[in-house]
């Protein structure tokens, strides 16, 4: 599914789900030619199921704020529902914001923890006042095959030929290059803009070290976690993997 690897493609995929999704026969919303946000999400879930991803319990996916029972006026897709994204969606009359990442700065979106934070309160209030809802789809979109984020990253890096989705979605066997060359390649292909203080691209280890294997680590790979988990990087090192890219957090 080539069109699904970009945000625009994901929006088109959602549009298809809303157009040909589950029947709403007998509902008042359908009788008036409209559907609610909750019914729109049900259609998305049905399309996922038709493509092999049945909805299941998740610590991440689901409604994060807002009222899913209001009438749907439009859908906005984003990586993260920042305040700026919410404002733009409201201005465009799109009251369902479908996000891949969290709404409140923590993967689990712990409302009980952030409910008194002034910025969180402002976001919640803005969503309510504009009759919106934020719905997150993370685990279920990663479960899609081919995995859309892996496809997109492989294409962007120019490494589609070196990537196998059904083996290890974030693992590449590449032509040999140095760590420095690898880091520069990633920077150039992704269009990363470096500033002296940004730390946008940092390399650890000998830049002249040669590498033929590369893995994308999720978060804080070298920082011990509460459970003692060290992340995929240490596992990679044990496998003599010589190039690792951390995509969400600094080392």
Explain how this protein is built.
By secondary structure, the protein is of the alpha/beta class. It has two domains: 2-142, Udp-n-acetylmuramoylalanyl-d-glutamate--2,6- Diaminopimelate Ligase, Chain: A, domain 1, CATH 3.40.1390; 148-246, no CATH class. The chain is built from ten helices and seven strands. The protein has helices spanning 7-20, 28-31, 37-50, 83-91, 111-114, 118-129, 139-142, 148-157, 179-190, 232-238; strands spanning 62-66, 75-78, 96-99, 133-136, 171-178, 210-217, 243-246. A four-stranded mixed β-sheet has the order 1-4-3-2, with helices on both faces. It has a three-stranded mixed β-sheet with strand order 5-6-7. The protein is globular. The model is unreliable at 20-31, 195-201 and 219-242 (pLDDT under 50).
End-to-end separation in angstroms reads 33 Å
SSE string: HHHEEHEHHEHHEHEHE
Instruction: Please tell me the CATH architecture of the largest domain by its name.
Output: 3-Layer(aba) Sandwich
- The total of beta strands comes to 7
CATH topology group of the largest domain: Udp-n-acetylmuramoylalanyl-d-glutamate--2,6- Diaminopimelate Ligase, Chain: A, domain 1
Give a topology summary:
Elements: H1 7-20, H2 28-31, H3 37-50, E1 62-66, E2 75-78, H4 83-91, E3 96-99, H5 111-114, H6 118-129, E4 133-136, H7 139-142, H8 148-157, E5 171-178, H9 179-190, E6 210-217, H10 232-238, E7 243-246
Parallel strand pairs: 2-3, 3-4, 6-7
Antiparallel strand pairs: 1-4, 5-6
Helix pairs in contact: 1-3
């Amino acid at each position: 599914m080539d069109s699904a690897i970009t945000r625009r493609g994901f929006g088109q995929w959602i549009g298809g789900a809303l157009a040909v999704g589950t029947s709403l026969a007998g509902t008042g919303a359908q009788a008036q030619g409209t559907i609610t946000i909750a019914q729109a999400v049900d259609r998305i879930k049905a399309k996922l199921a038709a493509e092999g991803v049945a909805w299941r319990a998740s610590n991440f996916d689901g409604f994060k704020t807002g009222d899913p029972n209001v009438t749907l006026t439009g859908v906005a897709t984003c990586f993260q529902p920042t305040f700026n994204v919410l404002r733009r969606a409201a201005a465009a009359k799109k009251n369902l914001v479908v996000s891949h990442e969290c709404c409140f700065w923590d993967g689990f979106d712990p409302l009980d923890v952030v409910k008194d934070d002034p910025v969180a309160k402002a976001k919640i209030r803005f969503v309510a006042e504009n009759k919106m809802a934020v719905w997150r789809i993370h685990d279920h979109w990663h479960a899609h095959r081919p995995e859309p984020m892996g496809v997109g990253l492989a294409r962007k890096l120019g490494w589609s030929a070196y990537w196998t989705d059904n083996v290890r979605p974030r693992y590449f066997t590449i032509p040999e290059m140095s760590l420095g060359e690898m880091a520069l390649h990633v920077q150039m292909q992704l269009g990363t803009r470096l500033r002296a203080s940004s730390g946008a691209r940092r390399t650890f280890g000998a830049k002249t070290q040669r590498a033929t294997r590369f893995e994308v680590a999720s978060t804080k790979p070298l920082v011990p976690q509460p459970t003692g988990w060290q992340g995929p990087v240490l596992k990679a090192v044990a496998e003599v993997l010589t190039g690792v890219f951390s995509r969400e957090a600094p080392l």
